[in-house]
Amino acid sequence: MRYIIITLLIFFITATSHALVIEDVRTYGPQKETADLRILSSTDIDVFDPVLTAYSGAFPTVSLEYVLSNTSDIYQEVRDGEKPFDLVMSSAMDLQMKLANDGFAKSVSLAETSQGPDWSQWQNKLFGFSLEPIGMVVSKSYFNNIKAPKSRRDLISFLRANQDDLRGKIVTYDVTQSGAGFLFATQDARQSDSYWRMAEVMGSLNTGLFSGSGEMLDAVNTGEILLAYNIIGSYAQKRSREQDNLLVIYPQDYTHMLLRTALVPRGTQNFEAARNFLTFLLNDVGQNFIEKRTDMLSLQSEVLNRNRQFKPIRLDTGLLVYLDRLKKQRFLEEWKEALFQ
Amino acid sequence: MIRKLMTFKTTSIRNRLLVQLGLVAFVISLFLFVVVRLALVQAVTATQDRLLAAAVSSVVDKIYVVDNIVSLDLPYDTFSLLGAIGEDRIFYQVKDDGKFLTGYEDLSYEGPFGDLQEPIFTNIDYLDETFRAASIENIIFAENQARRLTIIIAQSQNFQATVLTKISTNLIFVTFIFLIIAILFAFLTANLTIKPIGSFADDVKMRGPSDLRKVSSEVPSELIPLVHSLNGFISRFRTALRQTETFIAEAAHHIRTPLSVVKSESELALRKSKTPENREHLRNIIRSVDQTNRSATQLLDHAMVLYRAERPEKQKFSVRQAVEDLINQFRPAADLRDLGIAFSSNLEQKQQVHLDRTLLETSLRNLLDNALKYAVAESTVSVDLIQDKKQITVIITNDAANLKGFNASQMFQKFKRGIENKDVIGSGLGLSIVLEAANAINATIKVKKLKGKSVCATLSLPY
Predict the structure, then answer these.
(1) Does B89 touch chain A (CB under 8 A)?
(2) What confidence tens digit (pLDDT) does each residue in B285-339 have?
(3) In this structure, which topology does domain A2-131+259-313 adopt according to CATH?
């Protein structure tokens, strides 16, 4: 019954809006016609639920509505400002950065205890709240007797050496469809010269392109696919508890860490509620929930200190560059040339 | 009271100096702060301009033309760096022959444009903020056709504000320290300036009551006129005093000669006189003449003491010998009144002192004279010369005939007598001469009444 209502609701909302495709909605706290705090996010509700539940427990009078959508819709929604959301959370760092740079975010001053590390914030407008390492996921059964590659150079050699085994058995994000895939690929291209070499090799092996990580992980688990490149590691690790053929590998040359960021949009109806939620999310309590109860890492995570190759993607104006019309066009052309041979 | 304080304030050179120096220091500090801050703003703006110029030039480097189509490969690190210091917002726009190519289309800027070597820097308003922008135009050739590309990169001014706030805070601190040091120096300077005046005043204040020498202490050149006029004043004063003393001495001298004539004539007349009335008159005349003579002598003595006090002639001599000689001079006069003089001393004959002998003798002579004059007949006046660790003391003791109206405090005043005794001739100058002479040789003199009718005078000499 509940699912029918939600589905109807989703249908209703989707029908009235052209831009925003709402994938899921969940409410917390007392039921109100208009929630006190409306969060628009790209993070799966199941992943983020422990934090939201904890917040609702700490502030039981606040009615909270959590709306799930994809990153490019979220970006467009904030630019258009058609619906009043109070907090916008997204994994697309580049799009979030552009929103903040272009003046769509409100300045929020937070208490000292909610100040994350310098690299996790931009001005007082964009706040990183969780980290997720990006790695590759391989089929455990296939790599049972074979040494799995540890770095990108290893991977290239491995792909070249095992062309017959791997042809048609590799997947990665379709960067023309997926914002996250685009961000990961551009950061790769920026970080390492070997990226294009690897793309060429992948192209020669008829690499499959997907726009969501779920399908890719399912395919790896069944053994249909042997290797998925640029997958959010923490998500894969969660899946690996049930799908025991999944093995997550973090390359040792570098492993980028995705910073999920939040901003308060210009059109917020309840600035104080948004500020309150951000304060909760970024202080020790919220960060602790993120570290222990979700598949994400907190900003102060020990993992960062233990692994030198873990590099958070820098939250700065450099991220704007790949959103430039010409730059993006050039990148996609190059990518297509490498992947479609 | 308030008026008094105010007059004190306005007339204190030190305070005035302090206020003036303090004000100057404050004005300089303020000036420094403003100037340095202005320079700082310029420097920071120049830095931001250089950064923007570098960014523009790295963007131009990434422009390429393929198949007559202009394209741009925006440099990631340039954009990353531009925002690194102050988390600045960045906007840019590239136009190809006036046609929008990429960036922010609504960034309205129509020129002027500089070139790569010298971009034009301007402040432009965009959205809700003022941005610092660098703009250039660049001519490129594609298929033998010149095309005009314009490039603008605008950066918000957080970086400026951040740097300025940081340095300004330090600057305020440094300026404040500078001001404090300057004020301390003002204090020091004011005190140093005033110090010679103080020590000059002390120098003058420390002088003895009859020290009328010229002031010769070293003073700053600004005080020399004051010292000159003070010295002029002292010398005029001294001349006037000298004239008075000379006059008195001359007068006394001129009186003494005719007086002795009057005395001898009167004595002659007394011998020839037959009637007792005439004899009585003549005796009165002789006594008056004696007293006048004595007064004249003491006036001379007094003038001499004052003169010598000004420039004492120090010499080495045996103090015991000097006292004994003096006693011997008095013996005949003492014998006439059946008085004895007892002398005792623990001093060696050869024990010498270094001071003005005449002044010492004058004071001792007057003391001894008084002691004999007021002593009861057939008694003994004792003179004790005692040396201890600190000083040499002369103690003269007599048995006074009459102590009516004994007053130790007025004894040393001029023309005041310590004992009311009309039978004894006296001018009231004796003890004041003793005091003047004793002061001149740094000795102290005390007179006090002992048990019975004894009076004791103590003269203590420094070594």
Answers:
(1) yes
(2) 888 888 888 888 888 888 788 777 777 778 888 888 888 998 998 888 888 888 8
(3) D-Maltodextrin-Binding Protein; domain 2 (3.40.190)
The CA distance from A230 to B15, in Å, is 79
Q: How many CB atoms lie within 10 A of CB A276?
A: 18
Task: Give the pairing type, strands B391-399 and B454-462.
Answer: antiparallel
* Residue range(s) occupied by CATH 3.40.190.10 in chain A: 2-131+259-313, 133-256+322-339
Instruction: Decide: pTM greater than 0.90.
Output: no
ipTM of model? 0.84
Which of B72, B79, B127 is nearest residue A320 as measured by Cβ atoms? B79
Both B222 and B268 in a single domain? Answer: yes
Cross-chain residue pair A123–B73, CB shorter than 8 Å = no
CA distance B433 to B418: 14
| Longest CA span, chain A | 61
A327 vs B: CB within 8 A: yes
Q: What is the CATH number of domain A133-256+322-339?
A: 3.40.190.10
CB B429 within 8 A of CB B295: yes
**Residue B182 touches chain A, beta carbons under 8 Å:** no
User: Taking Cα atoms as reference points, which of B78, B192, B346 lies closest to residue A320?
Assistant: B78
User: pLDDT tens-digit profile of B265-298?
Assistant: 888 888 888 888 888 888 888 888 888 888 888 8
Tell me the HSE value of A309 on the side-chain side, using a 13 A CA sphere.
13
- Domain span including residue B352: 312-462
Q: How many domains does chain B have?
A: 3
